Structures are given as C-alpha cells and as structure tokens.
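A reminder from the course coordinator: this example appears on the midterm review sheet, so study it carefully.

Given structure:
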C-alpha cells in the first residue's frame, strides 16, 4: 500500500469518526431533590457528572429519616419552587433561540408540602401548579418535549417542603452547530457593519 493510499485511509477514518460524533446522541440526566445532580452520557458511557463521584451527595434510604432532617432545619434548607421556576425562566429564551433541537424524554416535578395549616398547604400546592404549567408550556414551545408530569401532594401531618425535579434529554452535536452557526454569523456581520460605519 502506497503512502498516498495510507493517507487517504487515515483521512477517511477521521472523517467517519467526525461524522459519527456529529450524529451521536448526547444524553443528559438531571435530578434536583434538594441536591443537584447531572450526568452526561455518550453511547451509554458516562463522560461527565456533577457533582463528581467522590462528592456525590448522600441519599437517605429511609423516607422517615429524610423527613426528620428536613423538619429539623426547615427554615434553613427547604427548597422554594418559586425560585426554581424563576431560575429556569431566565434560560428559556436562550433555549428557544439556540436549542430547538433538544429532545426532552422525561420531565417531572413532584412536591410534598406541609405548612401546619390546611388552608396554607392547599394554597401552596395550587401555587406549584400555577407556576409549573406556564413554565412547562413555554419550554414545550422551545424544545421537543414529552408530556411532563406535575404533582403537588399536601401533607397535613407535618411541616415540610420537599421538591423533586427529574429531567432526561438528548441532542446531537450537529444540531448544536446548526443552531449556533447562524447566530455567530449574524454577530460577526453586525460587528463588521459597525466597523465599516465607524471608519466612515
């Protein structure tokens, strides 16, 4: 085999690998249950996780033990679903413009709420639905999304607020490039036009 044939073979293999990387699904698994966890997998192999394995938060095996901990430091550590939705809302516009190719295969929001007062508990449960559904509707208009689930369960026996958000999604690198390149091109064009105007 000549040197030219070897070079062509190597270039062909590299091109095949690049094409494979562009069309391969990148899967992201996100869980928030008072602690944030994210895992990124490519071809079923975990390539990144946050927090790292050594820093992975301890998960209680017994629900009663978790409930007692939440109750003991309720004022300091309880999650606020309003803040979660507000933080998500700030990202929606960017997702709409750049990541319409994202496919969300699972999205669930589960809340267990107890305030010690039946009326206030019912109001807070209603607030979860009132905040979640508009945000999910906006998100659904920006990405390809499965049917999300929202659950707010009242707890009239003890005071606690426990929220769990689970999101599984995937995208392809070629989709990212197809979305980003037009924006980069437009940005560079605008910079060029401003430079020309400044030179006049």
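Designed residues:
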């Amino acid at each position: 085999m000549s040197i030219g044939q070897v070079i062509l073979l190597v270039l062909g293999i590299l091109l095949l690998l690049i094409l494979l990387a562009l069309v391969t699904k990148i899967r992201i698994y996100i869980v928030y249950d008072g602690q944030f966890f994210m895992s990124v997998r490519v071809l079923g192999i975990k390539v990144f996780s946050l927090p790292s394995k050594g820093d992975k938060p301890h998960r209680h095996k017994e629900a009663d033990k978790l409930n007692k901990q939440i109750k003991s430091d309720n004022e300091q550590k309880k999650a606020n679903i309003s803040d979660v939705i507000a933080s998500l809302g700030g990202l929606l516009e960017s997702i709409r413009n750049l990541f319409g190719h994202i496919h969300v295969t699972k999205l669930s929001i589960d809340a267990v709420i107890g305030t010690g007062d039946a009326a206030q508990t019912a109001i807070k449960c209603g607030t979860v639905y009132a905040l979640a559904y508009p945000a999910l509707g906006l998100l659904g208009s920006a990405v390809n999304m499965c049917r999300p689930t929202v659950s707010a369960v009242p707890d009239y026996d003890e005071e606690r607020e426990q929220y769990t958000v689970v999101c599984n999604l995937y995208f392809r690198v070629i989709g990212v490039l197809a979305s980003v390149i037009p924006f980069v091109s437009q940005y560079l064009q605008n910079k060029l036009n401003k430079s020309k105007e400044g030179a006049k």
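The helical segments are 3-23, 63-72, 74-77, 81-98, 118-142, 173-199. The radius of gyration is 23 Å.
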